[in-house]
Design a protein that fits this description.
The chain starts with 16 loop residues before the first helix and ends in a 10-residue tail after the last helix. The chain is an alpha/beta fold. The strands form four sheets. It has a seven-stranded parallel beta sheet, with helices on both faces. 38% of the residues lie in helices and 18% in strands. The radius of gyration is 32 Å and the shape is globular. 40% of the residues are buried. Bound molecules: adenosine-5'-diphosphate and magnesium ion.
């Protein structure tokens, strides 16, 4: 790398140890870091018509001094200078605090230009910058940097200017020339200059365009490089499944597979057979039939002489899956066992022992499955359902449990394309984009809370037909801050309402596992007709007789989550309904409700969700592993992301990439990320 640019910032005149220490807090250590410290916004010095400026907005105006400036002192050393200025047709006040010396510079009838915050109600600009005469700022834009400690915007601009003057000529291109030409991108030096010292909005735009592409390309190279490396250097096991047995299994299913299921099964078993380690993401909307796909995969692995594991986020779900897998697979002599934290003592020991002996074929459970004490004899395939609920770390531990098991991640939250190629960019992706035939779409309505009685009337109508209902509430306890209906209150109210007619059950996260289990069983067997629940029923639960769901405070949920919840109904052959009780105040809240009533397509919803909430919120908490980009925005710049992804794929496949000097810079990113660790390039 470039020795000049890698010098510490103290190499610059004007930056001493003290400043260097503060700069290090914002990760600026070298000249290069300084040059690449991107502004987060630009200050706009263009003159504007005050009529168009919002209250509290920063503005620059030019006007004529209308009367003698008046200076008032207050407190010790504090002063306020007030000037009446005629700006176009406005006579406004401009005030400067604590700069009394300005009084003598400003003369009546002269033109001045001031920059400051506009108080639209009182028609006052609280100014912090004065130019005598007309606006002479040459740049339309001045960069604004995020700062720390005693750093100032002016100081930052100065440091960067210095860095540019002394070392600008050492800035090296990182992208190959033919990409710059193909996409008409600024070279790196010009782009950095335009970023820090733009003379027009266009400069900023062009500079940004270049760095967005660069950032995505580097990211994709690392991601795909890692995938390629894993493929080539972590030999998995080749699982020679028994095709005849698989066919027999398929033939006895109560339904034919959809063509999407067939396609996905083929992709999966091909991976099983190949010597590479499978690392595949299966996306399929709620109800698209992922469970049977998982069962086929696990069975294939068992027929090849391996064990399989299915990991799910909750115990309830684990129990349900264990139940379905047993039904499907036990007739084929496959031993399925459930292992959750509530299975203890002797029973637990026994399962663990049998597992280690290889007598248990398939283990189903929550993340308890990755605890140290759990040892398989010959783990061949790991499937996780709703995997984004598992941390990256858990995924890694799990993958390392067996020798090198194939891994399939299933998710019912359709992942927007942009996230699929960033967060999961190192995976192969399969999509179940077809619903089993005969599925009716769920009718969704949005009702205001005051319509509750009518809504309950609809619920009752379904109950009278012998069907069941879910009622979902966001939180289990009242919180002062969030004025939310809580499950316990709703449970009490509905028990009262349906008294002597229907039985109401309550389910929430604070119940002990056995209690949850009991409630769920009562609901499954229709001993309870109305289940009031928090979002613990969100994933996977399957009670086909439930045909109506009411969601309280629906505006508190994201679109993807609402869609997940809604997927609990519409699982049988009867028409199902979902009613969103919500009174969203915000525009986007209202839009979310509207979208829910308009589409049942999980992919459409997840794209919308991402757009409305941004990537950070998409999976809920931070643990999702969504990369943070310095300048790029994966939602708005998704086209650049796709271009970069394709280019990265092309580069990694071309032999020139690994040898030609043109790509030297890009290759260093792979070295940094460990992809080339232990590899020598010649
Ligand atoms: P999800 O993808 O949400 O996990 P499930 O695997 O729970 O969906 O399947 C939902 C329902 O659809 C189940 O009752 C399942 O038996 C049924 N099902 C799955 N595949 C088919 C199919 N090809 N034809 C008809 N029904 C199917
Ligand atoms: Mg499922």
């Amino acid at each position: 790398m470039n020795a000049y640019l890698n010098q510490p910032v103290t190499a610059l005149k004007g930056i001493g140890e003290e400043t260097a220490a503060i700069l290090s807090e914002i990760n600026i250590f070298t000249i290069k870091d300084l040059l690449e410290y991107f502004p987060y916004r630009y200050e706009d010095y263009r003159l504007r018509d005050l009529a168009e400026v919002q209250h509290d907005e920063k503005v620059t105006v030019e006007g004529k001094v209308h009367s003698e400036p008046s200076l008032a002192y207050y407190g010790r050393k504090k002063s306020k200078l007030t000037i009446r200025v005629l700006v176009g047709r406005y006579l406004i006040k401009v005030v400067f605090f604590n700069q009394p010396y300005l009084k003598n510079k400003i003369a009546i009838n002269e033109t001045i230009t001031v920059t400051g915050k506009w108080d639209a109600h009182r028609q006052i600009i609280t100014a912090n910058e004065l130019q005598l005469g007309a606006n002479i700022k040459t740049a339309d834009f001045e960069p604004v940097y995020s700062l720390r400690g005693s750093l100032t915007t002016k100081g930052m601009r100065k440091f960067i200017r210095l860095a540019f003057q002394q070392y600008g000529s050492y800035i090296e291109e990182t992208l190959p020339d033919h990409f710059l030409q193909k996409y008409r991108l600024l070279n790196r030096k010009d782009a950095l200059r335009a970023l820090h010292f733009p003379s027009s909005q266009e400069d900023v735009k062009q500079s940004r365009r270049r760095f967005v592409y660069e950032e995505f390309l580097v990211f994709q190279l690392k991601m795909q490089g890692l995938r390629k490396f894993e493929r080539e250097h972590s030999p998995g096991v080749s699982q020679n499944y028994d095709l005849q047995k698989l066919k027999e299994f398929l033939n006895q299913l109560p339904f034919p597979l959809t063509s999407a299921q067939k396609r996905v099964v083929n992709e999966m078993i091909k991976d099983l057979k190949s010597p590479y380690r499978m690392n595949r993401l299966l996306q399929g909307d709620v109800g698209s039939g992922k469970t049977v796909v998982a069962a086929i995969g696990l069975y294939a692995s068992v027929t090849a002489g391996f064990q399989g594991a299915l990991m799910v986020p909750t115990e309830i779900l684990a129990e349900q899956h264990a139940e379905s897998l047993r039904q499907l697979l036990e007739p084929f002599d496959v031993r399925c066992e459930l292992l959750t934290s509530s299975i203890k003592g002797k029973r637990r020991k026994e399962i663990l022992h049998e597992l280690a002996e290889g007598n248990v074929d398939i283990l189903i459970g929550t993340h308890a499955l990755i605890q140290d004490e759990v040892a398989f004899k010959r783990l061949g395939l790991v499937i996780t359902d709703e995997q984004h609920r598992f941390g990256v770390e858990q995924r890694r531990v799990l993958r390392e449990k067996g020798e090198s098991p194939d891994v399939l991640f299933m998710t019912a939250t359709p992942i927007p394309r942009t996230l699929a190629i960033t967060v999961f960019g190192e995976m192969d992706v399969s999509v179940l984009d077809e619903m089993p035939a005969g599925r009716k779409s769920i009718e969704t309505y949005w009702a205001k809370p005051e319509m509750l009685e009518r809504v309950l009337g609809m619920v009752e109508k379904e109950l009278r037909k012998g069907h069941q209902a879910y009622v979902i509430c966001p939180l289990i306890e009242e919180s002062d801050k969030l004025d939310v209906q809580n499950a316990i209150d709703v449970y009490a109210a509905l028990s009262q309402f349906f008294q002597n007619r229907y039985k109401v059950g309550l389910m929430h996260g604070r119940l002990a596992a056995e209690e949850k289990d009991a409630v769920m069983k009562q609901f499954s067997s229709n001993d309870v007709q109305v289940l009031v629940s928090t979002t613990v029923v969100e994933v996977g639960v399957n009670v086909p007789n439930a045909t109506i769901m009411v969601i309280y405070d629906a505006e508190r949920f994201g679109l993807s989550q609402l869609h997940q919840l809604r997927g609990r109904v519409g699982r049988g052959s009867d028409q199902s309904y979902c009613i969103l009780l919500a009174n969203p105040k915000s525009e986007t809240g209202q839009e979310r409700m509207r979208i829910m009533t308009e589409t049942n397509d999980g992919f459409v919803l997840s794209e919308k969700d991402l757009e409305l909430r941004g990537p950070g919120d998409f999976f809920g908490k931070k643990q999702s592993g969504i990369p943070e980009f310095k300048i790029a925005d994966m939602v708005h710049d998704y086209r650049a992301l796709e271009t970069a992804r394709n280019d990265a794929a092309m580069l990694l496949e071309s032999s020139a990439f690994w040898s030609s000097p043109e790509y030297e810079h890009l290759r260093t990113y792979l070295e940094d990320s460990g992809v080339l660790e232990g590899e020598k390039l010649d």
